[in-house]
Amino acid sequence: MYWLIGSFIILAMMGVLAVADSTPIPIMPLFMDSASTPVLTISFVLLTFILILISQFTIPSVNPINSVKNTSHHSRFASRILYFISIAILASTLVIGSGLKALVSHQQADDQKITEPMRVQALVHIEGISDSVYDAGTDTGYRQVAIISQILPLVSELTAQDLNRVTAEYGAGLNNSLSGNDIKYESSNAISSHQNTLAENAVQDKVYRVLLNAYPKNPAKQSSKTNSQKKSKKTEKQSQIADLNHLQPGDRLFMTLTLAPLATSEQVSNNPSGFDSYRWLRSRHIDGVANILATSSAILPSSHPQSHSNSHLLSSDSYLTRLRTAIDQGRWQLRQHFYKDWATNTAAEQQAKAVTLSLLTGDRSLINRETKDLYQLAGISHLLAISGTHVLFLAIVLAGIVILLANRMYPALYRYIPRWHVRWWVMISAAFIYALFTGFDVPAARTAWMLLAIGLTRLTLLPVSTMRVLFALAVLMAWHDPYVLWQAGYWLSFIAVALLLKYEDTSQNQLLTSNQPSTSYDKLLRRLWLSFKRLFKLQCWLFLALLPVTLLLFGKTSLWGLIVNLFAIVLFGWIIVPLNLLAGLCYLILPSVADIIWMLVTAIVSNLHELIGWLTAMPVLSDAWLYTPVNAAILLMALLTMLPWLLPRGLISRWLVLPPLSLLVMTVYANQQSLTTTPTLYILPTGDHYISAALLQYPVVNDKDAKNTSWLFLADHRPSNTKIKTMPSNLTADKFSAMLAQQLGSLSVNKLEGIVVQSSSSGVTDSRVYDKKSSAVAPNDSELLPMIVAQLSQRLPVSQYWQAGHSERWSALYQAYKVTTDSQKTATISAQRCESGKIWQLPNGKLTLQAITGWSKIDDASVWDCTVAIDSSTPIRVLKYQANDPLKSLPANSQTLMSKSKPLPDQANMSQSRLILNADTHERTWQMWSLLCSADLTNSNIAMNHTIWLGHSTSHISNEVISQQQIDEIITYDNKPLEVALSSDALFKEGD
After folding, report:
1. pLDDT value for 695
2. Bridge-partner residues for 213, per DSSP?
3. Do residues 632 and 885 lie in contact, with contact meaning Cβ atoms separated by under 8 Å?
4. Which of 330-339, 400-409, 559-568 has the lowest mean pLDDT?
5. Dihedral sign, CA of 354, 357, 362, 365?
6. Which of 64-73, 113-122, 171-180, 199-208 has the lowest mean pLDDT?
């Protein structure tokens, strides 16, 4: 009953959050006011205690003799009915109340969030330390949680001097005002007093908790005259942004910001990586994002009182707030100590220091994307977080030191306080302080609260197991903050500890019961072998048990984790983390000694990075990712498989796991096969408005010797017309290729028949002298797509490569990339021209790829772009790829045309369907097709049953070409309507 009620509570809260996030649910304002206080949580705790007391002590008597003597049969039956009714009422109240608690929390967050974009001037209160640092050299931005108040609409652009003047006026008003709630200060915006009054009434009463953003900008190419005019202004602004790294927790200053609402879950579903930024920000109670425009160089003194009436978000100067700010300032100062002379270190030294800092304080701001990817590939990214092991180790060490000092200096203390009381108080104090110092994340907070709860159960002699304490703590944390259920760390932390508590190991008993005569050397070897055996069994148990949860939360898992964790956990747990904590303690007393220890730790971490990089680069084990979409059914079957190990030993026979295990394997296999049994074209998200990627998966059913065929199509749809200016792409080849490899892996694609780059690239066309290092590592926009082909060909087999336009320099580019990256693969791939008339066909003739545009022999790059027609014997469905759940990819939005020139049914080959992938960037492409190829299409006897056109909304295709191509349906990569389809010549209707 205990586990059942707790599970229903968590499921009810998760269900309410999921439903309320998509469907508005009305709620009474009176209930919202009462539920916003801690009274509701305290009420849940009291109801839980009453429920436990009733279930433990109000059990009806089962002694037949006493039952006959004292009560009648009807009274015993009535008491039993009353007992179960009271249990049901209390349990239902807890479940329903928990759901209402989640609903209230969601409604409060909705009422507080930013609803529309706006440019404002606001007072910014820095909260905690930043998530990252601003560094234009490494292209990393500044992200910081802050609270903004005193919000005014921004009409004209303000400089740092203007904001300094506003700061001075605001500070003078604070000093001269008797009340800090109604402070007025003169706005520097060029607006009238009437508009200022309206603005104050509309915006100034609001207080938001936002995520500040400032990223280095890659300015577009400009003329030298424009650069000379704006050079001083840009330099001044960049220096202001760079000063953001010096902002400490608790600082208050004025900024001009661009506020924007959070993207919804539907909007972030197009995220190429599948990361749900909406849930991540909501779980941190962020109301919106704010891009920094300008900052004041003057910071308000911390002695000023809070000046806003809505001080519940500004966290008035209570003791806990001041303690938290002081701890965050200590974390910031420690980061600055590590960040000192940062540019003089090598990249390897920088990342070794960054990981050392993360292991000490949980501050990951200095860790770059490459290091995070390396830890993810190795399956040890959990070691970067402050786990319960860190907190528990420090608590045990400090408790041991205190007990040792008490034994030596004041043993009489134990006359008044038991020894375990002293150890317990020291451990919980150290645990809570260190958890606060590391940001009080879920793993650290769980350890601190568990130490407190276990000590209380021992102090009160309650017959409660550790597993029940863990489960109760999980429910209490959900009651305190329902949005914690959206954090992956919450689930992984509690489930991992529960699995450790349920883990059984009998290898130690084998050592104790062994009666074989042996020497001390043999005993040492036997102990080492049994220790390794226990560690391996434990690692396999955790890896297999957490596999469904990991796949459900992240969609992939690294098989390297099973191997790397065997030595990484020992290295981190017994060497790196203890030395790091020792250095942290020495830093408070002898900073020079701490620096020496940190030098040793960074050297160990740096060598570890080299070892992991060498292991993960081995060609034999290059495919380390396991991609398997997991749904609720798979998770339930995995739970049934592990049930005999989770329950007490002997309660259920472990042979019973065979049916659910077999069903689980068949379900996973069926899910993998379902991705490739139907001809499908996936529109892959790229993160760039103009760059498109599409994957064609065509199953070969009748040919047993052939495998499923997969083609990847890449294109850059930026108009080549110089009159139309577009921003350059912010994608890099490394980032884009890694993203594509992950998407292909999630779709069970381990081989590509071909890659088609439909856009011409000047980077592989002209005859410039090729610089191997600079161009291969940081390619320009013209080399982006060919570089992606080069990198993908090193990740998985690629049989063909079609390139629009000329590609004379492809071999030099490809060889330079292999030299620069020290690639061990000897296989090379040659570029074939993608030009009009080029054809590829399956042996059975059911799939044909044909280039219908692209004339590279003409000395004009505007007609080089290659449009590809895919002819199939069966219809090809077009889906928008969902990175978070590929199985739930939805059909792409389309415009269905009513063609006037549709052939008669007896003239058409009803078994043929066509999908046209358009990639024109200039109007001359289709003009050339109309001159050269339209007559061939008219004289052709093949008519398609259904023709789909897929391209960009900026395409220059004409209405005449649409009619000649007999297009029935139009889909755009950017999900915008094609203008030519809206003309009067083509009747259409919207469809999905």
Report:
1. 94
2. 143, 291
3. no
4. 559-568
5. negative
6. 64-73
Structure tokens at 266: 């539907």
Degrees to nearest 5, angle at CA 581 with 578 and 584: 150
Q: To the nearest 10°, the Cα dihedral for 906, 909, 915, 917?
A: -100
Single-letter amino acid, residue 227:
N
- For 839-876, b where at least 16 C-beta lie within 10 A, e where not — what string? ebebeeebbbbbbbbbbbeeeebbbbbbbbbbbbeeeb
Number of CB atoms found within 10 A of residue 124's CB: 24
Q: Is the pLDDT at 747 greater than 80, yes or no?
A: yes
Structure token pair of residue 307 = 């000046």
Please report, rounded to a whole number, the percentage of residues in the chain having pLDDT higher than 70: 73
Q: What angle do CA 247, 250, 252 make, to 5 degrees?
A: 70
pTM of the complete model: 0.79
Mind listing the pLDDT tens digit for each residue in 851-910? 999 888 888 888 888 999 999 988 899 999 887 777 778 888 888 876 544 444 443 344
Residues in the chain, total: 992
> 531: Cβ–Cβ under 8 A, 6 or more apart, which residues?
none
The better pLDDT of the pair 392, 242 is held by 392
Is the distance from CB of 751 to CB of 239 less than 8 angstroms? no
pLDDT at site 937: 57
- Kindly report, residue by residue over 672-687, the tens digit of the pLDDT: 555 567 889 999 988 8
Whole-number CA gyration radius for the chain:
33
Between residues 975 and 188, the one the model is more confident about: 975
Instruction: Return the bridge partners of 802, or none.
Output: 756, 832
Distance, in Å, from the CA atom of 699 to the CA atom of 675, rounded to the nearest integer, reads 10
CB neighbourhood size of 42 (10 A): 11
pLDDT band at 8 (very low <50, low <70, confident <90, very high): confident
- Which structure tokens are listed for 437? 């110092």
Instruction: Give the separation between CA 469 and CA 808, rounded to whole angstroms.
Output: 68
CA–CA distance, 865 with 236 (Å, rounded to integer): 42
Q: What is the pLDDT of residues 790-842, one digit of tens each?
A: 888 888 889 999 999 888 888 888 888 777 776 656 567 888 999 888 999 98
Instruction: Read off the DSSP letter of residue 833.
Output: E
d(CA 125, CA 302): 10
CB 507 within 8 A of CB 537: yes
Q: What is the 3-state secondary structure (H, E, C) of 389-445?
A: HHHHHHHHHHHHHHHHHHHHHCHHHHHCCCHHHHHHHHHHHHHHHHHHHCCCCHHHH
Q: How many other CB atoms are there within 10 angstroms of residue 490's CB atom? A: 22
Residue 386 has what DSSP assignment?
A: -
Amino acid found at 136: A
CA–CA separation, 842 and 709 (whole Å) = 9
Helix pair angle (39-57, 73-112), 10° resolution: 160
Using CA atoms, how far apart are residues 82 and 932, in angstroms rounded to an integer?
89
CA distances to 18, 134, 275, 493, 767 from 14, rounded to whole Å, are: 6, 36, 19, 17, 60
* Tokens (6 digits) for 350: 């920088």
Helices 520-554/632-646 angle, 10° precision:
150
Q: Closest Cα to residue 759, out of 878, 914, 880, 922?
A: 922
Is there a contact between 856 and 835 (Cβ–Cβ < 8 Å)?
Answer: yes
Inter-CA distances, 988 with 406, 896, 979, Å:
86, 5, 12
Cα angle vertex 543, ends 538, 546, to 5°?
A: 115
Rounded to whole angstroms, what are the CA distances from 960 to 509, 699, 930? 83, 34, 9
Kindly compute the dihedral angle of the four CA atoms of residues 228, 229, 235, 241, in this order, to the nearest 10 degrees. -140
Q: 3-class SS at 141? A: coil
Residues 6+ apart with CB under 8 A from 530: 507, 508, 510, 511
